[in-house]
Every structure is written in C-alpha cells, then in structure tokens.
Design a protein that fits this description.
Blueprint lengths: L6 H8 L7 E9 L10 H18 L3 E6 L16 E7 L2 H8 L2 H13 E9 L5
C-alpha cells in the first residue's frame, strides 16, 4: 500500500482553491517490525511523530486528537482495522505543503515509511454553516 501521495494526488492538493484551515484525517496501520532495525513499527512512527509535531506547530497547526480505534460500528471490519487515528489541523493547504517539502521533514518521513504498513490520509475542510 502507498505511504506517500502519488504525483496526481499531491498536485491536486497543491492546486486546490480551497482556502483556510485543512484538517488531515490520518488512518495508520503499523508494521509488526519496522524496516531498518528501528524496533516495532509503532516505535518508528513515534520517532516520526515527535519530529513532525514540532514542524506542524511551527506552521501554526496542531494535533487535534490522536488515539486508537476500538470498534468498527458501521462498515467492513476487515477493511478498517487501524492501529491509530490522528486529526491534525493546519491553517492552510499551503502550510501543509510547505512542511512536507522541507528537507527536515523528508528526514523525519523515513521513520514514517519504516513504521507504517498502510495509511490513508484525507484532507478535510470545515463545512459551511
């Protein structure tokens, strides 16, 4: 499974005319054992997370919530076994793109790739009231 967006997905995010806050829904499935001898997948992802949180906050964003899903109430249980879910707010898509294109992020991202077996990242905007 993909751990990074493909070129079309990244281009669509970068060219979006949507302004203002974007919240990223992160669905995360860890590898049992991380690549490159980093311990468990969860441990490798934690190394990424510790560095990424600082980068998010430097751009005016914040971690809104992170936790472990307990139960699939509606939907395919076998297709929705995730180890963790995170909601991360950024002031804009531009702030997110700025973060993920920095050399420091690319270094941290190595731990993300080492630790995750599968992920889904969904960009969300507040609904109009």
């Amino acid at each position: 499974m993909a751990i990074t967006p493909n070129d079309d997905q990244f281009a669509a995010l970068a060219s979006s005319e949507q302004e203002g806050e974007v919240v990223m829904l992160n669905l995360l499935r860890y590898k049992h054992e991380a690549s490159g001898g980093e311990g468990s997948g969860e441990e490798a992802y934690r190394q990424y997370g510790n560095r990424a949180v600082k980068m998010v906050e430097e751009r005016g964003g914040q971690i809104l919530w992170m936790g472990k899903p307990d139960q699939v109430l509606i939907g395919d249980e076998s297709a929705n076994h995730w180890d963790a879910v995170a909601l991360v707010s950024y002031p804009s898509r531009k702030a997110f793109i700025d973060m993920v294109t920095q050399p420091d992020y690319e270094k941290a991202h190595e731990h993300r790739e080492s630790g995750l077996s599968d992920t889904v990242l969904i960009a969300m905007t507040p609904r109009d009231e």
